[in-house]
Amino acid sequence: MLTAEEQSLIQKVWEKTASHRDEIGGESLYRLFTSYPSTKTYFPHFDLSCGSEQIRSHGKKVVAALSTAVKSLDNLSQALSELSSLHAYNLRVDPVNFKLLSQCIQVVLALHLGKEYTPEVHAAFDKFLSAVAAVLSEKYR
Ligand code: HEG
């Protein structure tokens, strides 16, 4: 799991995104749908055009879940348990898609944070997002 250093790095950087976090969610989703069009199949009921109200509002939800995760780095499984059940039993999202979204979130974080998105921050977020993806995938088996 994440080292104590990685945990504090993630908490520090996430704090810095506070004022524009909701946009980060929507931009990551738009990037997901554009770069990996097959992901759109899970959202047939959404208006997927850039900046649509549905993308923005769903982006806020995704980012809020990530904020919960950042607060519970020692206990991700429990913190995201309901969300994990929802994705496995109701939404049935193929777990490969979690990696794709993680990639897009990383790119958007880099765009927002510029030089502050150092290789160390990148590495820590990669581990964090992989841990979130693992929890969201764990109920499929
Ligand atoms: Mg998921 C709903 C979080 C990846 C498809 N997703 C949700 C919700 C949250 C969430 C918080 C709302 C739950 C609720 O209403 O109670 N999603 C979330 C995270 C991540 C993720 C944190 C990964 C980091 N989701 C993900 C991926 C897909 C997907 C990769 C598909 C490509 N999510 C999905 C769909 C819904 C949610 C189809 C329902 C959307 C709706 O109809 O409003």
Automatic annotation (TrEMBL):
<dbReference type="GO" id="GO:0019825">
    <property type="term" value="F:oxygen binding"/>
</dbReference>
<dbReference type="GO" id="GO:0043177">
    <property type="term" value="F:organic acid binding"/>
</dbReference>
<keyword id="KW-0349">Heme</keyword>
<feature type="domain" description="Globin">
    <location>
        <begin position="1"/>
        <end position="141"/>
    </location>
</feature>
<keyword id="KW-0561">Oxygen transport</keyword>
<dbReference type="InterPro" id="IPR012292">
    <property type="entry name" value="Globin/Proto"/>
</dbReference>
<dbReference type="GO" id="GO:0005344">
    <property type="term" value="F:oxygen carrier activity"/>
</dbReference>
<keyword id="KW-0813">Transport</keyword>
<keyword id="KW-0408">Iron</keyword>
<dbReference type="GO" id="GO:0042744">
    <property type="term" value="P:hydrogen peroxide catabolic process"/>
</dbReference>
<dbReference type="GO" id="GO:0072562">
    <property type="term" value="C:blood microparticle"/>
</dbReference>
<dbReference type="GO" id="GO:0005506">
    <property type="term" value="F:iron ion binding"/>
</dbReference>
<comment type="function">
    <text>Involved in oxygen transport from the lung to the various peripheral tissues.</text>
</comment>
<dbReference type="InterPro" id="IPR000971">
    <property type="entry name" value="Globin"/>
</dbReference>
<dbReference type="GO" id="GO:0031720">
    <property type="term" value="F:haptoglobin binding"/>
</dbReference>
<protein>
    <submittedName>
        <fullName>Alpha D globin</fullName>
    </submittedName>
</protein>
<dbReference type="GO" id="GO:0020037">
    <property type="term" value="F:heme binding"/>
</dbReference>
<comment type="similarity">
    <text>Belongs to the globin family.</text>
</comment>
<keyword id="KW-0479">Metal-binding</keyword>
<dbReference type="GO" id="GO:0005833">
    <property type="term" value="C:hemoglobin complex"/>
</dbReference>
<dbReference type="InterPro" id="IPR009050">
    <property type="entry name" value="Globin-like_sf"/>
</dbReference>
<dbReference type="InterPro" id="IPR002339">
    <property type="entry name" value="Hemoglobin_pi"/>
</dbReference>
<dbReference type="Pfam" id="PF00042">
    <property type="entry name" value="Globin"/>
</dbReference>
<dbReference type="GO" id="GO:0004601">
    <property type="term" value="F:peroxidase activity"/>
</dbReference>
<dbReference type="InterPro" id="IPR002338">
    <property type="entry name" value="Hemoglobin_a-typ"/>
</dbReference>
<dbReference type="GO" id="GO:0031838">
    <property type="term" value="C:haptoglobin-hemoglobin complex"/>
</dbReference>
<dbReference type="InterPro" id="IPR050056">
    <property type="entry name" value="Hemoglobin_oxygen_transport"/>
</dbReference>
